[in-house]
Here is the input.
Amino acid sequence: MIMDKDKSSLYEYIDKIGSELKSLSDDIWAYAELSLKEHKSALRYIEFLKKEGFHVTENISGMETAFSGSYGSGRPYIGILGEFDALSGLSQEACKTSESPLSPGGCGHGCGHNLLGAAALGAAMAIKKYLSDHPDCSGTVIFYGCPGEEGGSGKAFMARDNIFASLDGAISWHPGDVNKVATGSNQTSMQVRYDFRGTASHAASAPYMGRSALDAVELMNTGVQYLREHMEPGCSIHYAITDAGGLSPNVVQAKASVLYMVRSTNVRSNKKLLARVDDIAKGAALMTGTTLSRDFIDGTSNMISNHVLEKVVYSNMLDIPLPDYTKEEWAFAGELFNTYEKNGLPGIDPSLTPEDTEMITKLSEDGKRPINDFLIPLRDNRSVAFGSNDVGDVSWQTPSVYFYGTTWTSMSPGHSWQNVSMGKHPIAVKGMMWAGKVMAASVLDMIKDPDILKRAGEEWEQSTGEGYCCPIEEDAVPKPIE
Here is the structure.
């Protein structure tokens, strides 16, 4: 490990540029752009990177809002992953303890990606500063602007083009309600839209002349319900009717569309399950005399855990003091905490011991403490979490790790107005700054201690022996979900 003074210099630098990082985060929060439409956000990052002397590559993998900024020379090549897309329907005023949309029906950063990207860039800038101050040190830091995490799977499209395959390691983080290394794995996912086209006619006088696309959608949905009994454990299927064909019941609907998300524990299993859903869609079209077109939207892989890098990150999480909060911040968090239902304890997963659970119970005041100002212990978690994200695709191409930092109130609902409200609050900014320091320190460990990446690479080779099966179909192109 490196000397403490080297890391102290990183922390001091991140504190020095803190106002710039907050300004960046606040701007991205205000733009609140949806997946693969983050044009203002991407430009803000690109201009920042160029100004700071990074070598910028734009329009990666056919995505206008995907880019990278690199600095340094020689190995190791370390990637720091940034995101900046928002969510629809979550417009909300900042720093409020009641629901108050800025623009009714508008977008908002309910997953904290404004904080995520700013902290990641702060870490990249700190490593750049270290490399420029130590010209004899070999190493290259690459900040990746990854669009479309909330729909579009930007990292998966980038992985299909082997963008991350040359890296020696990658790191990211995510805003959350706990301070914790992300361990274990998660579900894969694939999204496909099925468009049915039939023939319109008068539903009363000439129904026999019509061929209902809506009937096809409903029959497909029924068929999938029967499929559920015969899926492998760990699989799940969700759907949304995106076009029901119109508002007039006396017209046979000539068009209808349904969007499906199919999940499993690994991509190969997921593709088999998706093929069965495809067959059901074909059957529904055959039964109704309609035509079917299929549009692959996106897909993500399961996360390949890397215990070597998890221990490095956890060590730095232990070393870097967690944020302190003022009385006013505790009071604000308490008010927001009371606006939603809670159940259980924060940060619990199957790997934690009874002693861990007892400790979390005490520190969280049995789940009643509004801010989780403590660190969840690191344990060897082998479970598969429900839900998906596209960091998994990066982990199939290079040893990868990510963690959570407290920026929200305890057990705050995901993708909620409460999270949007917190997006510019001092509590969230403190969590963002802490996360940037954890990433910077961990990357510096990887650069200064070659044995870390050697061991991480050996573990990764064993974990990925079957090879990367990309969830993105060959002819698919990145597209926003309308």
Observations:
- The chain has a mean pLDDT of 96.
- The two ends are 48 Å apart (CA to CA).
- Residues 188-299 form a domain with the Alpha-Beta Plaits fold (CATH 3.30.70.360).
